[in-house]
């Protein structure tokens, strides 16, 4: 035998010996109510673990030798929860900080996009990917990643596809694949040759039927960009395993999607659950996949089906049902113990048969230093003037008393409501930040590095309101842009220039004095902080804004502002 064959011989011999009481197993979890996702039943039993995997259900304890016994005391045992699609950057936390907030919610596996960080890294994209994935196997959750399908050079995508734990190609850029971009052809060719997966992207009802045919025809593996019943109908009709997502601020959207599944009686085998984008604050206060499963059950989906949508269905979609997604022999011992199936309460979380979280507290984490990924800011706004932030009407009424301007809404109610053109008062040739008698804040979208004339879009904003002062933040991908909210152009300009001194940050100013700062030092998209530091920093931003007149609900303001860039890019408000 060669070395590999010998290792496998030893493994199969060891399992045989364990089941015959001649060698010790690692762990026996007993007195459980085990969820069988295949038969969709629950049965009383025990689970035997050896070398990170389940090796037996209901083993004969009279002959068993085992190092450790865990008494489940009648709790339900369900497979470790899986997020089918999450952006690493959306929660602003690096991988170990993410673990602090996510794993106690019962999530043991994620399928992650990293395109924004790698895009932000630019020429250092390959180095950034290597740093991001360094020691990933030490994390208390299972990580599968995707090379950028958009926002980076094709050469970066090609190199990242060769890294571990990358299993395929991330989101395509709908503006380019629908126009026949050659880089997209090459990216698709590379992943097809590798035998990997391709993530779909873009609301399917917004695509022509011919382009919608193109995606599954070239091997796109799934679709996570559905917003309504018609999107779902097309997505499953065209054979996409379809992700139902709960992202930043989108609680209204997921309820629409779940209600459609229930009302149309679509088989839930078509669906998986994911977050797409989620904040640390929401993970800590509402939960992760545990919360989404519970909401699905509340909306009328059979609880076992809801659990399968966040476990077995996802594993099967990525052809990994032999490794994860069920509590059966041969699968990794990723196990969650809960006292309810309809309202998931992850009391104990095991990954690879090791207890990693208890009572919503992480017990074990990787020790990985990400400080080497922190970057200094490269300023680009030295020549920005307050006048460039003044709102210029799109149109003026015949009597000169009204101006047509953009009104932007905070992301979360669906892209269709992201922006509109409205009429507001015009006084002495200046736009009055008021609509239907209600005072509003202003929003400016500002290009960081100008090549000639700087691209600036100004309008009104619904979602964050300040009576004075300003708040600004920055996002580097796919192009470096700022957003700033305020009432006065000079204050807004000053706030922007303060953010411009950082690689990335969210800053609140009042009368040109900094009131709160959240630095995003890791390529401008991640904070080099623990969860405690990150949540305290986000809370400080909210507290500073509350003093300026804002009354925030739901997500922290920093997450609301950063999520704007998704829609700003989609609707071409970034040059």
Automatic annotation (TrEMBL):
The keyword Zinc does not apply. Its EC number is 3.5.4.2. It catalyses: adenine + H2O + H(+) = hypoxanthine + NH4(+). Residues 423-555 form the Adenine deaminase C-terminal domain. Residues 270-356 form the Amidohydrolase-related domain. Pfam families: Adenine_deam_C, Amidohydro_1. The keyword ATP-binding does not apply. Keywords: Plasmid. It is an enzyme of class 3 (hydrolase). InterPro entries: Adenine_deam_C (IPR026912), Amidohydro-rel (IPR006680), Metal-dep_hydrolase_composite (IPR011059), Metal_Hydrolase (IPR032466), Metallo-dep_Hydrolase (IPR051781). Belongs to the metallo-dependent hydrolases superfamily. Adenine deaminase family. This is adenine deaminase. The lineage of its organism: Bacteria, Pseudomonadati, Pseudomonadota, Alphaproteobacteria, Hyphomicrobiales.
């Amino acid at each position: 035998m060669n070395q590999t064959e010998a290792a496998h011989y030893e493994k199969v011999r060891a399992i045989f010996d364990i089941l015959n009481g001649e060698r010790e197993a690692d762990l026996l979890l007993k007195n459980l109510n085990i969820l069988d996702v295949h038969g969709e039943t629950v049965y009383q039993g025990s689970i035997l673990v050896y070398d990170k995997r389940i090796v037996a259900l209901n083993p004969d304890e009279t002959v068993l030798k085992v190092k450790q016994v865990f008494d489940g005391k009648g709790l339900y045992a369900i497979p470790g929860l899986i997020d089918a699609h999450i952006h690493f950057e959306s929660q602003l936390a690096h991988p170990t900080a993410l673990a602090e907030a996510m794993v106690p919610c019962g999530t043991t596996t994620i399928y992650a996009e990293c395109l924004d960080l790698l895009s932000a890294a630019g020429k250092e994209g390959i180095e950034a990917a290597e740093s991001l994935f360094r020691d990933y196997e030490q994390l208390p959750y299972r990580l599968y990643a995707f090379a950028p399908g958009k926002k980076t050079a094709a050469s970066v995508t090609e190199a990242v596809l060769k890294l571990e734990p990358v299993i395929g190609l991330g989101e395509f850029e709908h503006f380019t694949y629908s126009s026949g971009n050659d880089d997209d052809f090459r990216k698709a060719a590379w992943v097809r040759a590798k035998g990997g997966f391709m993530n779909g992207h873009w609301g399917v009802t917004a695509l022509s039927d011919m382009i919608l045919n193109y995606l599954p025809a070239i091997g796109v593996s799934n679709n996570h960009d559905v917003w309504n019943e018609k999107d779902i109908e097309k997505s499953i009709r065209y054979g996409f395993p379809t992700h139902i997502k709960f992202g930043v601020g989108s609680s209204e959207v997921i309820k629409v999607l779940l209600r459609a599944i229930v009302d149309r009686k679509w088989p839930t085998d078509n669906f998986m659950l994911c977050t797409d984008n989620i904040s640390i604050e929401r993970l800590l206060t509402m939960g992760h996949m545990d919360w989404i499963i519970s909401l699905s059950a509340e909306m009328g989906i059979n609880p076992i089906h809801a659990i399968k949508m966040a476990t077995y269905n996802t594993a099967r979609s990525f052809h990994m049902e032999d490794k994860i997604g069920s509590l059966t022999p041969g699968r990794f011992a990723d196990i969650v113990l809960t006292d309810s199936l309809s309202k998931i309460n992850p009391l104990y979380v095991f990954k690879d048969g090791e207890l990693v979280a208890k009572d919503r507290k992480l017990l074990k984490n990787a020790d990985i230093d990400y400080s080497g990924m922190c970057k200094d800011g490269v300023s680009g706004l030295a020549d920005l003037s307050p006048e460039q932030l003044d709102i210029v009407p799109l149109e003026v009424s015949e009597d000169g008393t009204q101006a047509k301007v953009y009104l932007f809404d905070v992301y979360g109610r669906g892209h269709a409501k992201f922006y509109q053109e409205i009429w507001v008062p015009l006084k002495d040739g200046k736009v009055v930040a008021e609509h239907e008698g209600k005072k509003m804040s202003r929003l400016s979208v500002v290009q960081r590095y100008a090549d000639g004339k700087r691209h600036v879009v100004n309008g009104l904003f619904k979602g964050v309101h300040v009576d004075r002062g300003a708040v600004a933040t920055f996002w580097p991908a796919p192009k470096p842009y700022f957003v700033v909210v305020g009432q006065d152009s000079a204050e807004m300009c000053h706030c922007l220039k303060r953010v411009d001194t950082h690689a990335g940050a969210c800053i609140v100013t009042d009368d040109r004095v900094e009131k709160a700062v959240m630095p995003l030092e890791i390529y401008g998209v991640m904070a080099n902080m623990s969860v405690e530091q990150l949540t305290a920093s986000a809370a400080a931003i909210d507290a500073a804004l509350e003093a300026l007149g804002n009354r925030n609900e739901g997500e922290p303001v920093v997450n609301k502002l950063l999520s704007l860039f998704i829609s700003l890019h989609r609707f071409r408000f970034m040059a």
